[in-house]
Model the fold of this input.
Amino acid sequence: MFSSLSANLSTLVRQEIQLAKAEATTEAKKAGTGAGMLAGAAVAGYLVLMFLSMALMWALGSVMHLGWAALIVAVVWAVVTAILAMMGKKHFDRIKGLPQTQETVQEIPPTLNPSKETP
Done:
């Protein structure tokens, strides 16, 4: 009876592992497809941004020299970049790490230190 239970349990565990592998593979393929689509959307968005910037440059170029128009568009993007960088830095500065973990690690009793005697 014990050997039958052991064999059945072993079979059940193997089948569960195979099921988990199959599900993980399927989900990984879905995640990969989604990541690829997001990467494609990012490239397309970048191209849209570039063409809109060029269109703005050419539109400004109809009322001023094209070199000045390109400089104006570049300055606008430099300002946007600076603002986004400052906002991102503020968000990173708000990260506090792992305060609960740090607190619990500091609370480890000194008795775990083998070089000291325990009271």
About this structure: The CA atoms of residues 112 and 118 lie 8 Å apart. The chain has a mean pLDDT of 85. The first helix runs from residue 2 to 61. The chain is about 80% helix and 0% strand.
